[in-house]
Write a structure and sequence with these properties.
The chain has about 325 residues and is of the alpha/beta class. Helix 2 packs antiparallel against helix 10. The chain is globular, with a radius of gyration of 22 Å. Strands 1, 2, 3, 4, 5, 6, 7, 8, 9 and 10 form a 10-stranded mixed β-sheet that branches. The chain has helices at about 1-20, 35-50, 70-75, 110-115, 120-130, 170-180, 190-195, 205-210, 240-245, 245-285, 295-305, 315-325, and strands spanning about 20-25, 55-60, 80-85, 135-150, 165, 180-185, 200-205, 220-225, 230-235, 290. It has one domain (about 1-325): D-Maltodextrin-Binding Protein, domain 2, CATH 3.40.190.170.
């Protein structure tokens, strides 16, 4: 009986592998248990179900196939079929994606998703698709908050004179200059030690990044500004996409739609859980003060930082910015 069951399992595996007409290698650089990692696995399972095994998806987390930059090059030649890099990886190709770096562009999560899922989001995906990738969906990391080691950041002028680590982004550099702060471009891997050693006074990041990298342990203050957004763009190799028949393309679109809905829920849940962990640390140790902006205080930040928008009309597009703002009205 055991031999029979073993043979049956082998036959089923062989049949499944024979049924798979297409194989997708889905690369990402984070752990499998993150919202992005879980969504990639969900997408893989759902697409195999929808395609009745015609498409097999292999998920490679933790940069197993290389960094996002390396993988994007491989995708041009169809050596890798899918990835979900941050928007910053595409701004060299599509400068308009710098839209998401603009501070206080979005009122809240609802406004953000209206933009991502509406005309503005589609226009940006079309721009990426013209550059040799097929843009499929936007996945959330979360909104950014600010931390520092000197004083609570309640008013915009509280940032004056402080050194803030930023990603390599012209928008983010101008954001901190407008606040009277000193932007310092550093790789993400160097942020913890730079904060610890006082090379910089503060930084901006999502709750999940602050929590997993323990930035809160080497900072004195954290303000829940929710001033900017970090997200991922899920893309597919154009060469691979063009090989797929229309019915399987429809399966990919449905699977990614369902996975996107799941990912956004998981991202929100994780950020809430990790913020609670940071709050527990603050209460237990007394080493961290967490502040929230009132609507009146937030309005002052919005007025101060939206003043930099005209500087990016030529690269991002005035109409695109205004259209994104209008989505929240």
């Amino acid at each position: 009986m055991k031999i029979f069951k073993g043979l049956l399992s082998v036959v089923l595996l062989v049949n499944l592998s024979m049924a798979a007409q297409y194989v997708i290698k889905f690369s990402h650089v984070v752990a499998a248990d993150t919202p992005k990692g879980k969504a990639a696995v969900y997408f893989a399972k759902r697409l195999e179900e929808l395609s009745h095994g015609k498409i097999k998806v292999e998920v490679y987390p933790n940069a197993q196939l290389g960094s996002d930059k390396v993988v994007l090059r491989k995708m041009k030649f169809n050596a890798v079929q899918m990835a979900a890099p941050t928007f910053s990886k595409f701004t060299g190709l599509v400068p308009q994606l710098g839209l998401f770096d603009l501070p206080f562009l979005f009122k809240d999560e609802n406004h953000l998703h209206k933009v991502l899922d509406g005309k503005v989001g589609q226009k940006l995906m079309d721009m990426v698709t013209k550059k040799g990738y097929v843009a499929l969906a936007y996945w959330d990391n979360g909104f950014k908050v600010m931390t520092d080691d000197k004083r609570p950041l309640i008013k915009p002028e509280d940032c004056k004179g402080l050194k803030f680590r930023v990603m390599s982004s012209k928008v983010l550099i101008e954001q901190f200059k407008a606040l009277g702060a000193i932007p310092v471009v550093l790789p993400f891997s160097e942020v913890y030690s730079a904060l610890q050693q006082g090379v910089v006074n503060g930084q901006e990041n999502t709750i999940s990044n602050i929590y997993t990298k323990k930035f809160y342990e080497v900072q004195r203050y954290m303000t829940i500004t929710n001033h900017g957004y970090l997200g991922y763009l899920v893309v597919m190799s154009k060469k691979f996409w063009n090989r797929l028949p229309n019915d399987l393309k429809a399966d990919v679109k449905e699977a990614i739609k369902e996975a996107t809905a799941k990912e956004r829920v998981w991202a929100k849940e994780l950020n809430n859980e990790q913020l609670n962990e940071i709050k527990a640390y603050a209460k237990k140790t007394g080493k961290l003060e967490i502040d929230y902006l009132t609507p009146q205080q937030r309005a002052l930040w919005v007025k101060k930082l939206r003043a930099i928008y005209p500087e990016f009309y030529s690269t991002i597009g005035k109409n695109l910015i205004e259209e994104a703002i209008k989505e929240g009205e």
